[in-house]
Design goal:
mainly beta; 23 strands
Length: 315
């Protein structure tokens, strides 16, 4: 996919708007060859050039926290609290508008994992558009959008709209994903947020998964072993690639670096833990993936929508 230079014009903020999540204004980005840098007064949202000259949205909270969102892939690549980045981008990540960004919180849509189309679908290597910016009780908010086009239709021939809202608070980062069927026929999909957390892998652990049905992809990812999680504290002693079905709506990650992160969700019914171990010898010690997912396919009739939220909080 070719990447173009973009200057994103964000709508005027209505500070009298209610603080609950609202539908984004139907305002579209303006593409020019001018500089990307544009400040939005008073709301902590600006768009600038990131790595590889790709456009990124920077959210800055009045409390000092910060987040970065690349429009290529709609990928949150950074979430900093007290200048400490809690997310991780792999050292082999490329920012060329051709390959998905390896790190942060990439979208897997309309397919999680391998399947009829390319691994993890196409949403993570398409350009998303800014459609709205706002603040909620003083916290910066940006909403971006992805629609079908020739590239997506070449492998998944349906019309859809994906709306992704990101809200930054003092010690939390929340997202809302809405998938709408804008076609005239039904379609189905699976999806996930493939979130990479900065971690010391030997000290990292996840609580909250005891009792879940598991699909363990180690040693054979094509024939996962069905089981049940018996541990209160799940660690990463080596290669880990495990799906947890019907996971609870809150997990607690200890990143082994002195931070505990609550991972809450609504409608992300499943969870995935992943660490590549020696398959990525250069960086496996520095991150773990704790992913909210929807493994069983969602069926949407025309004009129907599916919504899921995630709330990451430093506790």
């Amino acid at each position: 996919m070719a990447t173009v230079s973009m200057s994103w014009s964000l709508p005027t903020i209505n500070n009298s708007s209610p603080s609950h999540l609202r539908r984004p204004n139907r305002l579209h980005s303006v593409m020019t060859s001018a500089s990307l840098k544009k400040e939005i007064s008073g709301v902590g949202v600006r768009v600038t050039e990131g790595q590889g000259n790709l456009p990124k949205v920077v959210l800055s909270s009045p409390h000092g926290s910060e987040a970065e969102l690349y429009l290529f892939g709609g990928c949150v690549t950074s979430w900093k609290v007290a200048n400490k980045d809690l997310l991780f981008v792999r050292p082999d990540a490329v920012f060329n508008g051709q390959k998905p960004i390896s790190g942060g919180a990439p979208h897997c849509f309309p397919q999680f994992g391998p399947g009829p189309i390319q691994q993890h679908g196409f949403a993570r290597n398409m350009n998303w558009s800014v459609v709205d910016s706002d603040d909620v009780e003083g916290n910066p908010v940006v909403t971006i959008e992805l629609k079908d086009g020739p590239y997506s239709r070449s492998m998944w021939d349906f019309s859809f709209q994906a709306i992704y809202k990101v809200i930054l608070d003092a010690k939390s980062l929340s997202t809302e994903l809405v998938i709408t069927n804008t076609d005239k026929i039904p379609f189905s999909f699976s999806t996930a947020l493939h979130t990479y957390f900065h971690a010391a892998v030997t000290g990292a652990s996840v609580r909250g998964l005891r009792g879940c049905k598991t699909l363990n992809k180690d040693p054979d990812p094509k024939n996962p072993l069905v089981g049940k999680e018996e541990r209160d504290v799940v660690t990463f002693p080596g290669f880990v690639d495990c799906v947890y079905l019907e996971a609870p709506d809150e997990l607690l990650l200890d990143n082994g670096l002195g931070d505990k992160i609550s991972i809450k969700n609504s409608n992300w019914t499943d969870a995935v833990l992943w660490n590549p171990y020696l398959q990525m010898e250069a960086c496996y010690k520095d991150f773990v993936c704790v992913e909210n997912a929807k493994i069983e396919k969602v069926q949407l009739d025309p004009e129907q929508s599916w919504t899921a939220t995630q709330l990451l909080s430093l506790v």
